[in-house]
TrEMBL record:
Species for this entry: Streptomyces ficellus
Superkingdom to which the source organism belongs: Bacteria
Residues forming coiled coils: none
Lineage: Bacteria, Bacillati, Actinomycetota, Actinomycetes, Kitasatosporales
Record's protein name: Peptidase
PROSITE patterns tied to this protein: CLP_R
InterPro entries xref list: Clp_N_dom_sf, Clp_R_N
Sequence ranges assigned to domain Clp R in this UniProt record: 2-184
Keyword field: Repeat
A Pfam family assignment: Clp_N
SUPFAM superfamilies: Double Clp-N motif
Length: 188
């Protein structure tokens, strides 16, 4: 499948590994893929981010991702469902952090493997890579570009899709931005 990746898509995969290393994460996640997409310049995804106003809000995206990690990776739908059962996630997070320290639900870091710096991709991150192929084929494209990776992230339910949607980058909005092309007016 990787032979179908464009140079930009390969840069995203490599960049995701770099983001995982910087975060001292033992695995590459969907979040790392999104951060690597935000690093790109002059690509379809960077043009879509710019058209939707996401580019200038990177700090806000990073903050939203950090807040989701703080909640143990619960999505907005998870939090709402628990609230419907009378469970206040914010209160639980506060109590856990009071006892175990800030970020206790964000997941512990494992020591780096001494024999290799290889970081495997989580199953959800691999699923995004596979979904990007389906997105590309569905759009009639022969190669997988950064835009297909971004659409795959927006299409998969989870924290990353929630954060994208909160910043105006839903699957539909991204699809319209890609269809309009760089510099063209986007329909809302």
């Amino acid at each position: 499948m990787f032979e179908r990746f464009t140079d930009a898509a390969r840069s995203v995969v490599k960049g995701a590994v770099v983001h995982a290393e910087r975060a001292d994460a033992d695995r590459v996640t969907e979040e790392h893929l999104l951060l690597a997409l935000l690093d790109l310049e002059g690509t379809p995804s960077s043009h879509a981010f710019a058209a939707l106003g996401v580019t200038g809000r990177r700090a806000s995206v990073e903050s939203a991702l950090a807040e989701a990690r703080r909640r143990g990776g619960l999505t907005r739908a998870d939090t709402d469902a628990l609230a419907g059962l009378g469970i206040d996630v914010t209160e639980i997070v506060s109590k856990v952090e009071a006892t175990h320290g800030a970020g206790a639900l964000a997941g512990g870091r494992r020591p780096k493997r001494r024999w290799t710096s290889h970081r495997p991709f989580t199953r959800p991150a691999k699923d995004v890579l596979e979904q990007s192929l389906r997105v590309a084929l569905g759009r009639g494209d022969r190669h997988i570009g950064d835009e297909h990776l971004l659409l795959a992230l927006a299409a998969r339910p989870g924290v990353v899709a929630d954060v994208l949607a909160d910043h105006g980058a839903t699957y539909g909005a991204l699809d319209r931005a890609f269809s309009a092309g760089p510099g063209e007016a986007k329909a809302g």
